[in-house]
Amino acid sequence: MSRKRQGLLTGITSALLLTAMVVSPFGPASAETLLQALSSAYSNNPELNAERAATRAVDEGVPQALSGYRPDISASGSVTQTWTDSDIRNGSDTSSDSASATLGLNVTQNLFRGFRTANSTKKAEAAVLASRAGLMNTEQNILFDAAEAFMNVLRDQALVQLRSQNVSFLGEQARATRDRFEVGETTRTDVAQADARVSLASSELNLAQANLNSSRAVYQQIIGNEPSNLQQNFSAERLIPNNMDAALDVALRDHPAILAATYNADASSFDTKVIEGELLPTVTLEGDLSRTYNFDGATRSTDTASITGRVNIPIYQGGGVSSRVRQAKQKEGEALLRLDLARHQVRAAVISAWGQLTASRAVIIAAEAQRNASQIALSGVIEEQRVGQRTTLDVLNAQQELQDARVNLVSARRDQVVAAFALSSAVGKLNAERLGLGVQIYQAEEHYEKVRDKWFGLRTPDGR
Predict the structure, then answer these.
(1) How far apart are CA 128 and CA 124, in angstroms?
(2) Bridge-partner residues for 284, per DSSP?
(3) How many other C-beta atoms lie within 10 A of the C-beta of residue 24?
């Protein structure tokens, strides 16, 4: 073997050893961990913060309903100037003018509204609970999206590294093939095959870089900052229930989507009762107090006070109320059907996530075995090429098999972590407390307690 050829093969072997390094999709020690990324998403994600604001707005439905128990008080005032000009038949004319001012106070208290106030309050309270459950569901969806975005960036970074190493190896292989062609030790076909593989590897590298840019953009959208030196050091295994039956039991009992649908069904039931209350009598007590000031005449002021009890018995409203009752009953039936739908969707999500997690574990084992075997095979093919027992195409094919094995392993490791988070989300237990995030946990009850019994005031609890 010529010294030149031996040097070329040594260069190929060095490139092979470089690409044969075990590439972990999780990278070296870094500045931002998965839990830190999840904490940022929990605190800063605009969709989650918007859902919290919507929940606070729903809280105000309870004091609005409770206002039906409270009096309605209003004050009024008026100033009157009157001019009178009389033309009398005997030829004499008379004219006069007077001025007066009146101040009044009216108090109206509902005594009975067909149970509408009580049922409206129960409806509003059910809506608050449904909103909180919806907020919990949004929270765990955002946390899952954040975990998936984090793992996608890690995966795509590893794939870019693998693709880049593959381009380096194939480029070295192509250069060596050309040198051997120049000395008559190989054919033009070998050169063309090597160049074709380099072109293919370059296109795969460009695609991997494009995918990485896309993943980084999604990461910033969900988590709120640019990904930098990411490190996955969180064991997602602790999020996984012991078995699928246990996962189904927990999910069907506690999943936020099911709880939200349950409370929405309750709210629909109370809404029907509120509308039915419009068909019942209404009893109110009304008090009026007024003082009239006369600026002319002997009487300087007049005080008037009255108390009036009113009973209104609806007889016929053109069929509008009856139609709204029927409509509300249909919506109540719809809410119950959506509750059944939520249960079926949660059940399907748990079974699917469990299957994906199980499959990803098996894929990792197979991919690791494939990678190890492909590394040994590639080393053997290169050694056999040195003594003329293998062709350039054999080396290229062995390298492609090793590259595919590494890509499969990187993707499988990502899939396992994402599947674990998906299963935790499907069970309904993916939340900041269970993850142990270092953030201040949002307490929806605090705002509710502050506004529930407020009788007046325009400022929100946060001072706006």
Answers:
(1) 6
(2) 110, 310
(3) 14
Residue with tokens 């300087």: 300
Token reading at 354: 């469990």
* Apex 127 CA angle, 126 and 128, nearest 5: 90
* 332 or 457, which is more confident: 332
Element (H, E) at 215: helix 188-223
Whether this model's pTM surpasses 0.85: no
* Predicted confidence (pLDDT) at residue 197 exceeds the cutoff of 80: yes
The predicted pLDDT at position 176 comes to: 82
| Mean pLDDT on 218-244 | 85
Q: Report whether pLDDT(17) > 60.
A: no
Q: Inter-axis angle of helices 188-223 and 34-44, to 10 degrees?
A: 50
Residue, of 184 and 360, whose pLDDT is higher? 360
Spatial separation of the C-alpha atoms in residues 373 and 285, rounded to whole Å? 90
> 107 and 73 in contact (C-beta within 8 Å)?
yes
User: What distance in Å separates the CA atoms of residue 101 and residue 81, rounded to the nearest whole number?
Assistant: 9
Query: Among candidates 340, 441, 418, 324, which has minimal Cα distance to 34?
Result: 418
- Cα–Cα–Cα angle for 243, 249, 253, rounded to 5 degrees: 150
Strand ranges for 271-314 from DSSP E: 282-294, 301-312
The sign one gets for the Cα dihedral 310, 314, 317, 323 is: positive
DSSP conformation class of 309: E
DSSP per-residue codes, 95-122: EEEEEEEEEEEEEEEEEESTTHHHHHHH
The single-letter code of the amino acid at 375 is: Q
- What is the CATH code for 3-71+115-280+321-435+443-451? 1.20.1600.10
CB-based contacts of 241-248 (< 8 A; 24+ apart in sequence):
241/423, 241/427, 244/350, 244/351, 244/354, 247/350, 247/354, 247/423, 247/426, 247/427, 248/347, 248/350, 248/351
The structural domains of the chain, with segments of one domain joined by +, span 3-71+115-280+321-435+443-451
